[in-house]
Amino acid sequence: MGYVYLLPMIFSAAGAILCLIRSTYFEEVISVISAFATVVVAGAAIFFPNFSNGFLYVDGLSKIMLIMISVIYASTVIFSTTYMKYIEDPLFEKNFYYLLMNLFAFTMFFTVSVNNLGLMWVGVEATTVTSALLVATENNEMAIEATWRYIIIVSSGLIISLLSNVFIYSATHTLSFSMLMSMKITNADKILTLGSMMAVVGYGTKAGIFPMHTWLPDVHGKAPAPVSAIFSGVLLPVALYVIARILQVVPVESVRNFSFALGFLTVLVAATLMVVQKHYKRLFAYSTMENMGMALIGLSLGEYAFIGAIVLLISHAFAKSSAFFLTGNVLARYKTHKIDDVKGISKRMPFTAYTLMFSSMAVTGTPPFGTFIGELMIVYGVLSKFPLFYTLTLAAFLILAFISLNFKIGKMIFSESDGGKMERKRVGRIVPMVNTSLAFLVVFLIPQIQEILSKGMIR
Amino acid sequence: MEKFFTFIGFFEILLVLFMQWEVYTKKIITTFSIASYTIAIFLFYLGITENKYLVIILALLTAGVRGFFIPWFMKKRLIRDPWREREIKPTISTALSILISLSVVIFAYVLYRITFYNSIGLVDGSIPIALILQGAFLIISRRNAFIQLVGYMMMENAIFLFEGFLFPTLPFIVEAGVILDLIGITAISGIVVKMMKNSTTDSNESDELKG
Predict the structure, then answer these.
(1) Could you write out the DSSP letters of every residue in B120-172?
(2) Could you state, in order of their start, the residue ranges of all structural domains in chain A?
(3) Rounded to whole angstroms, what are the CA distances from A347 to A323, A363, A418?
(4) E strands, A157-241, where?
(5) A103 touches chain B (CB under 8 A)
(6) pLDDT band with cut points at 50, 70 and 90 for residue B199
(7) Angle A48-A49-A54 (CA atoms, 0-180°, nearest 5)?
(8) At B200, is the pLDDT very low, low, confident or very high (cuts 50, 70, 90)?
(9) Predicted confidence (pLDDT) per residue in A308-340, tens digit
(10) CB-based burial of residue A403 (10 Å sphere; 0-12 exposed, 13-18 middle, 19+ buried)?
């Protein structure tokens, strides 16, 4: 049975290896086939029972992560096939780009499938190794500088989580997730509590959680659009997945409150910084940070808020990947990152403009998108566990983020422009439209998501 | 064994203090190599005395990867970019750096005594904490990408020393994975550093990486 859950890793690794063959369009075709094969397997996995052995641990949460990663991986690969031609002087050959992209997907599949906190760390760190050069694809000084910041800040942050593994091991004498689950820890000693808190900070670095978030806007701002999309859509949630696992095995109040505080501060800081952003990709990067903060709040509160966090992460993955794809379309045509220099998208690129408008609304939690339902469940969780003041503060900053992002993007879309039409054709338009639609369709799948999380499969 | 751990730990602290005060990149890399070999010797001795062959393999991996391969790889890159050989403008002056790095050692001791000591019980457990903080300080205080990378690897070395001594039964696959990742990080960093035309300060002034 376990081999089914190995298939996403096998397909993505095979795709990476086959990219070494140099032949025109071969790397694109093989990457698309590999990515779609992972979508099929991940989709089928929800009808299989949970599985655990010495190496793998796949339950409902892992299955949802597998679906998220595979869908965003597939849409990113498809979008890349048209986007890569807009990069004038890429850092490497096209086949190396797809090789890294497939390896990057492999490391994420690995992280969400393994049954060991130590190997999860190895997986998360491996995502840095495989994705760092993707950030520098555009081969300019600022992209390279952003790549360096990414490597050094994220790796240093992950050192904290490596140390946390040592502490968790010292307290429990195992790093096996299934064994930790079977211990049913209710009272953690000082060292286990500290270890768990350090894990939240360490993996929080990768998830863009305050105060270790500083790499995130630089990388999202300077990476090519498909790379920003896959980072925002699934890389950050993969890091949050490990935090969710830590909170599952050490469900003590102090660790949960600590995670809540970090998530809360992340929303406050991100929403405030969104007000002053002048570059649209950085604006979306801070929006990602705000959403990750909300998801961490949900994960820390548990119960309905936990389901809300998962709904938010799924819907956000689709909506934000779409938003980043569309910023790529805008950048390819307008050749600028500055909000003030982009005018009249609705007249010049109508399809891009309206999809961008809907995806912007989706990432800021506007109804009827899944993000709205997810945020509503999280806010309800906050209201039921904390004084009203917390809910009001959180709501105020969510509204601030909503206004900041939609006002600035709205200005880009609906301002006057003299230029003629310059819409991108086919794939560049269709992929974001599909992802934005999926961000809405998530709403109808909430009962199934709940069933997968509670029972591990759909019967 | 605890005395040997203390001796190795203090030696590591001396080496990292030397790194804080040194401005020549090549010397810092060589010092890192010595620090890694020292940890490898410690792990090897631990493996022999405790009769744990996986710890011996780990010691050999540490010597091969951290002691030899990574410093060799970095020095090879350094020969290609001779202008990187000296840190021209460190973020913090050398005098202040000495003061801060000594304070960090004291801070680590106090932090350890009031937090972890009661749970771990190891008298000199503050040494790895001091080394981690020193590694972090090296990253903050320098602009040279190679030295920042050494700072990161010193942090990892500290954890290896700590877990090697306290938990030699920690799954080998995890430790091997950590070493494998380190090779990857170093290789990728080598490529990125090669692409950087100047020190990181030039790009810090960029408008697009602000806010």
Answers:
(1) H--TTTHHHHHHHHHHHHHHHH---HHHHHHHHHHHHHHHHHHHHHH-TTS-H
(2) 3-455
(3) 18, 23, 9
(4) none
(5) no
(6) very low
(7) 115
(8) very low
(9) 999 999 999 999 999 999 999 999 888 889 999
(10) middle
- Residue position matching structure tokens 């490497």: A92
Alpha-carbon distance B181 to nearest alpha carbon in chain A (angstroms): 6
- The string of DSSP codes covering A190-208 is HHHHHHHHHHHHHHHHHHT
Per-residue pLDDT, averaged over A18-25, amounts to 88
**What token pair was written down for A286?**
């801070």
| Tokens standing for residue A98 | 């797809």
What is residue A323's predicted lDDT score, i.e. its pLDDT?
96
Question: Does the pLDDT value for residue A192 go beyond 60?
Answer: yes
ipTM reported for the complex, 2 dp? 0.83
The two tokens of residue B113 are 């005594």
Roughly how many angstroms between the first and final C-alpha of chain B, as a whole number? 50
Angle between the N-to-C axes of helices A303-334 and A370-385, in degrees from 0 to 180, rounded to the nearest 10: 140
Say yes or no: B192 contacts chain A, CB-CB below 8 A.
Answer: yes
Q: Determine if the peptide bond prior to A368 is cis (ω within 30°).
A: yes
Comparing B187 with A328, the larger pLDDT belongs to A328
Could you give the CA distance from residue A63 to residue A43 in angstroms, rounded to a whole number? 8
Residue A424, classed as helix, strand or coil, is coil
DSSP B68-85: IIHHHHHHHHHHH-GGGG
A444: DSSP letter: G
The tokens of A80 are what?
């890349």
Sign of the Cα torsion A305, A311, A315, A321 reads positive
Residues B109-151: tens digit of each pLDDT: 888 887 777 776 777 778 888 888 888 888 888 888 888 889 9
Our CA-based measurement puts residue B72 at a distance from the nearest CA of chain A, in whole angstroms, of: 20
Is B196 close to A169, i.e. CB distance below 8 A? no
Q: Give the Cα separation of A391 and A459 in Å (integer).
A: 37
A57 forms beta bridges with A52
Q: Which amino acid is at B195?
A: M
Task: Give B149's contacts in chain A (Cβ within 8 Å).
Answer: 152
Which chain B residues are within 8 Å of A162, Cβ to Cβ? 156, 159, 178
Cis peptide before A211 (omega within 30 of 0): yes
Q: Determine the average pLDDT of the residues in A409-416.
A: 92
Interchain contact, B195 vs A156, CB within 8 Å: no
pTM of the model: 0.91
* Minimal Cβ distance to A166: which of B149, B163, B195: B163
